Amino acid sequence: MESLFGQSQRRRRAGGSGFESLKRLGHISPAVQSHLKHVYLTLCSALAFSALGAYLHILLNVGGALTTVGCVASIAFLISLPASRDQERNRLALLMSAALLQGASVGPLVDLVIDLDSRILVTAFVGTAVAFACFSGAAIIAKRREYLYLGGLLSSGLSILLWLQFATSIFGHTSATFMFEVMGTNLKL
After folding, report:
1. Is 28 left (phi over 0), alpha (psi -120 to 50) or beta?
2. Looking at the structure, do residues 95 and 148 belong to the same domain, yes or no?
């Protein structure tokens, strides 16, 4: 534990992490862009495995306490493995198994939401997917950090407003969605 805190203090003094590195708005190196692509691909894969776990619960009713314990155990084992090139496949497999078990653990809640109103699940999925896609696109395309921050926030907000407008034109317009659109547009301007 001491070495972990000692390394973070040395990095902070060297300007490698912390709030100071967030305030730098210069160019993003190709190595960092490649790393961001890998991170978002890994997150997308974990999301897919989590959705598969929730789907398995709906089909086979496998979610519960045992899958939650399995998820916590695989996360603990993932944390205990060293971050090295030779352990990369093992760490990825553990992450995907933790995501699958987490999805199966959340499966009873998803099943309850489907029983209440299935539109809630679709709305949450589309909103999350749109925001995730916008931030992923901004991370892949942006060459400078300020465009990464600005592009991710603006594109996700505007695309959610676009999809909300599209959905209200099909399903009907309420005063609450109109106020959300007006407030969201004012915030973007």
Report:
1. beta
2. no
- Phi first, then psi: give them for residue 28, nearest 5 degrees: -100, 125
Specify whether 105 is located in the same domain as 136. no
Residues 6+ apart with CB under 8 A from 184: 157, 160, 161
pLDDT digits (tens, 9 = 90+) for 1-36: 334 344 444 444 444 566 676 666 677 778 888 888
Q: What is the mean pLDDT of residues 112-116?
A: 88
∠ CA(125), CA(128), CA(133), 5° rounding?
Answer: 120
The answer to whether residues 148 and 160 belong to one domain is yes
Tell me the sheet residues that pair with 27: 144
pTM of the predicted structure, to 2 decimals: 0.68
Q: Measured between alpha carbons, how far is 139 from 137 in angstroms, rounded to an integer?
A: 5
